[in-house]
Amino acid sequence: MAGLYIHIPFCKQACHYCDFHFSTNQELRQRVVEAISKELKWQREYLNNESIETIYWGGGTPSILLRNELEIILDSIFKNFSVVTHPEITLEANPDDLTFEKLALLKKIGTNRLSIGIQSFDDSILQFFNRAHNSVEAEQCISIAREAGFNNISIDLIHSTPGQSLSAWKSNIEKALALRPEHISAYSLTIEEKTTFGQWQKKGKLQAIDEKESAEQFELLIESLTQAGYEHYEISNFSKPGFESKHNSSYWKQKKYLGIGPSAHSYDGISRQYNISNNHLYVNSIESGKIPFEREVLTRANKINEYIFTTLRTMWGTDLGYLEKELDYRLAENQFFQTFLEKGLVVANQHIIRLTSKGKLLADQIASDLFISE
Ligand code: SF4
Q1: Which of the four, 122, 175, 332, 336, has the lowest number of CB atoms within 10 Å?
Q2: Residue 374: pLDDT over 90
Q3: What domains sit in the chain, N to C, each tagged with a CATH number?
């Protein structure tokens, strides 16, 4: 069983923090849609005939696509791949696109999970982020989605925003919980160099909040959501039991996936492929008969480090037996391993290690200390 990811590289406007690949110029839309449809056909062998269990429309903003654009791509998916009877089909959407008519269409074409980019329920923060929606749309889109028949809804939130107090973050969490989404993804704001925020930071106009404040916001999030019955199944992801994202979980469980469209990544168990992150170059290349990608064959060290990094962030933990059997690596012999156990940052239960609450605050650092070099 494998996953399929479709990258739709268009947005209405550029959010100030966003480092994903997208364009606000819609001129190439039709050509990109046609190119994605062709790439799907040409990549039909990539997954070695494994059935598609999850389809994920990401971006960019897939919810800006029109009916005919969505249908061209879907048609190519179902013509070229064997898809299981009840696949999880997720579509990333922005609140300002979610009219009842749009939602009914998304439902009709098979979407059964929405991932809504709410980010904040606070108008001043939404404006600071340069989001295209407001707080009213943020709150209303979920009830409209319910009316349209969606019963698997995820929302994205951002914490650790400069200028946002702990009590303002608390009020965001309360608003999110009142809407009862099945899934919540919450990310700490990271300021990336090539974004507007990155430029502001360089000019001294913006400063990231300090680590202590950020840790407090993360701790409040974990406490509030777990008390409300959500499972903290991955460092940035919480779900009601049974509503974990199957697609994203497959990334963390080393399943194969195929990524289609500009900037999309693929993984076949041996290598990773990265499509070019440029809409013009992508369509020109596809139109001349070639998929524009780079391929990286994974070394043993790459596989070990990726396995540690992704699994340690999940509630399923890192399986020392798997590392030893499949990758010939004895993690327990790593010089940092005992220290992390003694400091209460990780716990070991038989052959599985997991982060403790304290360890979750330092997840990236702990994982990188356990990495091996080539
Ligand atoms: S955050 Fe989403 S909507 Fe905003 S620019 Fe990035 S991809 Fe587009």
Answers
A1: 332
A2: no
A3: 2-252 (3.20.20.70), 300-370 (1.10.10.920)
